[in-house]
Amino acid sequence: MGYVAARGGTEAIAAAEELVRRSRLNADASWLELDQLTERLRYLNDRVMGEGGLWAPQLAARAIRQAEGDVIEAAHLLRAHRSTLPRLCELIPADADELRPLRRIVPAFREVPGPQLLGRTLDYTGRLLDLGDEDQARAAAAAATAAAARHPEDDPAENAGATEPPFPERLLDVLRRTDLAVDRRRDDDPEPTDISQVAVRPGIGRSAVLSVMARAETGALVNLWYRNILGPDNHLHEVTLGEVRHGELPIRVRHPRTGNPVLLGHLRATEVEAIEDLDGADEDRTRFDVGYGLVAGHNERKAIAMANLDIALHRDHSDSGLEQSVLMTTDGLDASGFLEHLKLPHYVTFRSMIERKQAMRTDRARNERKGRRHHPAPVVTPAAEQAAVPAGEVTP
Amino acid sequence: MTLLDPTISPVALLAADTSSRELLDEFSKREIRRAVLTAVAVPGYQVPFASREMPVARGWGSGGLQITLALVGPEDTVKVIDQGEDAGVNAANLRRLIADTTGVDTTTVAGEATIVQTRHRVPEDALGDDQILVLQVPVPEPLRGVERDMTELRRMHAEGDYARMWVSLYEDLVRNGVITQTTGYPCLVGGRYVMATTPIPRWDIPKLHRSAHLSLFGAGREKRIYAVPPHTDVEPLTFDDVPFEVERTEGASCHRCGAGSPDSGVESFLVELPGTEGGRWVCSDTDWCNRRLSSGMVAR
Amino acid sequence: MSAAIDAIRLASTARLQGSASTVVFRVLLEALARPGRPLELPELAMDPRLPNALLLPLALADLGTSFWVHGLYDERERKLAADVVREATGARLAAPNVATFVVCLDGDPSVPSRVRIGSELAPEAGVKMAVQVENFATGAPISITGPGIAEAFITTVGLDRAFLKALRNRNQPPVGIDTWVFDRHHRVLALPRSTRIGVVDDVAREGVN
Predict the structure, then answer these.
(1) Which of B9, B50, B242 faces A88 most closely, judged by CB atoms?
(2) Of B90, B160, B163, the CB nearest to A393
(3) Residue A127 forms part of a structural domain
(4) For residue A135, how many other CB atoms are within 10 A of its CB?
(5) Is the pTM of this model over 0.80?
(6) Does the beta-carbon distance from B163 to A389 stay under 8 Å?
(7) Higher pLDDT among residues C169 and A192, named by residue
(8) SS3 A254
(9) What one-character-per-residue DSSP string does B3-54 give?
(10) Which of A117, A118, B29, B215 is the most exposed place for a label (fewest CB within 10 A)?
(11) pLDDT below 50 — which residues of chain B?
């Protein structure tokens, strides 16, 4: 029997696909190399890996190029690729204290244990559009790259990460030492939930909620945060940031037969501790509590939103619907997939809608002829009784 | 790779069989299969499953696609329709994906298919006991119109507490004179769970009731799978003196095959082709209509 | 040869991949959709020393799931079966009251009361159970009806009255146990939790309607 190509649709989508492919190649521009994306558009690449839930810089760059720069489309390509790969083992959990910082700031204190390390950040670069000469910039970039290759020790980016071990004590440790933090540590900590393996729903554990936020669309999480600050929802208030760190975390697995840890490599992550001033009636006003954010790659705004939402969710006791909003509405692929499905044909459902409009008119005309305005009350069916409905609730 | 190679984990051995073009790995298929089995054992209950990312967007049939890919074996023949049509762009795209990545045979003839994947329709031909209908579901929760909170929704299904659904149908009827629910009409399955019927038109609901075939419903974005086994009650929620009404328009008949006209003796679900001089109608199940035309069943 | 190596060798015959895993699943699905109807299992390369009841976890278990094998009479057989499932799927061995899959090698009627049945909030937590029997033609007659069954009928499934009553008592849909019964003639049938089982001496007393 083979493949039956129903005429029409198949040809149309094949033609559209070919047009996309041809336009991508024939763009009247030089070919976009992957290192242009991984090295020069690193926020973009990191964001796609974070929202795609897969740490793979080269694959993310391919995805961005193929998606013509559409971030959600690129994240989709990464996730769909991951679906085809078997899940072979579980990583050994990395201790966040093992994060080797490339950047670390502690807004809550002027001086802290360990360095305040500004590192590579756009925060204090002037927001002035660089209108400099392209040829000069190109030449400068080439010269800098060549110089860095000769003297790697002079590279400011490398130097930024040169902190002396042990890794800096975190602000939370200081607060705990001075008895200023509510201690919520628990020793019955269950295995973290892998959200690629279960369907999350309200009531699921904190590890799953944190994972959902870590994989959420950045704009969705930022918007949910701001909506709660300034919009109709009011489930969180502004935190003080303890730690904002960007650095490298080790990835280790257990050897399948020997059980020994094996280092596979590193991933970069952004970690945030958000300090909350407790003011609830049932809360310990003499202490602070802390929300936590950790996202793949360098994405501080997402990590901060996550940390603030984390503590808000804890204080909220799942009462307000904030948990459902976080779990169910922040995934970029879910939201945009469903939004865009409106472009699919809907003529069967639309025909059914028109039919009901006509049925309402027919009913109205019939009743007007009979001089009656309202439909008589319906009678409860056996099916209704099966559904355990108190009759009084259905029949007035 | 030898059998006793100490560097290969047992899991890697199971995963090793990757024919590479497949969209789901062995473990993902197993998880979907477990959810499908639970769904069949608890008719109408929305079983949570992990839902993998597919090469189609969420909301574009990713749930149905995952079920189909977890089902298809070497002996299968697959038919894919959208709005009843085999040639629509979405149907064509899904069919292409399924065929290209599994090598399975495809058909447009409902009777030849072992698996029919569909969006918004059930084929006009009654499916047999050797066939499985896979429905793509955008919104699996039938009670969302009366309740938004997921924890409360879960309780309502757990306790079979559908009172508010009945109240809402009643209010609809009193306000509008008819029940205005269009497609995706809520049904009670096996006397226990209220289920969203995908949205297929009301016309198709009797085809799910005590059917010979198995129906599987996949909602990829919302991560739910549910099922109607063969010979299971699917009863539209309505009141004793308010008959459940399917889509019918007086005087409408297919301008190609005549279905719906008094002399044709058959009816099908018709869709309108708007025109300047009043609309024309045509069967939404294009293959069924084509076969009527080519087999000479059509009275001219 | 050591027991561990034996298990690894047997597991290599029992590792269901690609289409083998698919065809076994399709038979299990078909059986579940039409309760009480015996179906032929596909031809497989599995070592004949392994009981077919293992096919349930072999086709469906993986790293994220757990299983338990029950057998009172032959501890070596039980242990070997468990090793094979673990080796072939990566699933964890777990206590009966938490396991995703339970394989009962001997029809011990205490088993249904020891496995998990889920809850009304989470029916999906009900166990998937495989039972090995000799022959469907033997055992206590039962009448069955429910979803997937066009008309109630009376049959035997190779299980005795005590086991069937225990199973019936645990099945209170939507909670309960989904059971697949495998006989020694390469056949399988299913009794999902939705199937109402009447043990025939009770049926006779109450009268078949």
Answers:
(1) B9
(2) B163
(3) no
(4) 8
(5) yes
(6) yes
(7) C169
(8) strand
(9) TT-TTS-HHHHHHT---SS-SS-HHHHHHHHHHHHHHHHSTT--EE------
(10) A118
(11) 1-4, 300
Tokens of C166: 């225990």
pLDDT in tens, A262-288: 999 999 999 999 999 998 888 999 999
Residue C109 buriedness (CB in 10 A; 0-12 / 13-18 / 19+): middle
Whether C25 has a pLDDT exceeding 80, the answer reads yes
Give the residue extent of every domain in chain B. Answer: 26-142+173-236, 248-300
What residues of chain C lie within 8 A of the CB of B10, using their CB?
11, 86-90
The answer to whether residue A384 scores a pLDDT higher than 50 is: no
Range of lowest pLDDT (A5-19, A69-83, B57-71, B124-138):
A5-19
pLDDT band at C195 (very low <50, low <70, confident <90, very high): very high
Domain shared by A164 and A250, yes or no: yes
Q: What is the architecture, at CATH level 2, of domain B26-142+173-236?
A: 3-Layer(aba) Sandwich (3.40)
A294 and A153 part of one domain? yes
- Dist. CA B217–CA B227, nearest whole Å: 6
- The nearest CA of chain B is from the CA of C20 a distance in Å of 9
Is the preceding peptide bond at C174 cis, omega within 30 degrees of 0?
Answer: yes
Q: What is the pLDDT of residue B297?
A: 67
Structurally, how many domains does chain A consist of? 3
Confidence of residue A372 (pLDDT cuts 50, 70, 90): low
A231 and A287 inside one domain: yes
Q: Which chain A residue has its CA at the smallest distance from C122's CA?
A: A201
Question: Of the given ranges (A38-52, B10-24, B241-255, C7-21), which has the lowest mean pLDDT?
Answer: B10-24
A387 with B107: Cβ contact below 8 A: no
Residue B221 touches chain A, beta carbons under 8 Å: yes
| Mean pLDDT of the region A195-204 | 91
**Does A390 have pLDDT greater than 50?**
no
Q: Where are the domains of chain C?
A: 3-206
Find tokens 């895993």 and name the residue: C21
Q: Decide if A290 is inside a domain.
A: yes
**All chains having 3 or more CB pairs closer than 8 angstroms to chain B:** A, C
Q: Which residues contact A298 (CB under 8 A, 6 or more apart)?
A: A42, A43, A46, A246, A268, A270
Q: Has domain C3-206 been given CATH number 6.10.140.1670?
A: no
Q: Residue A362: which domain range?
A: 347-394
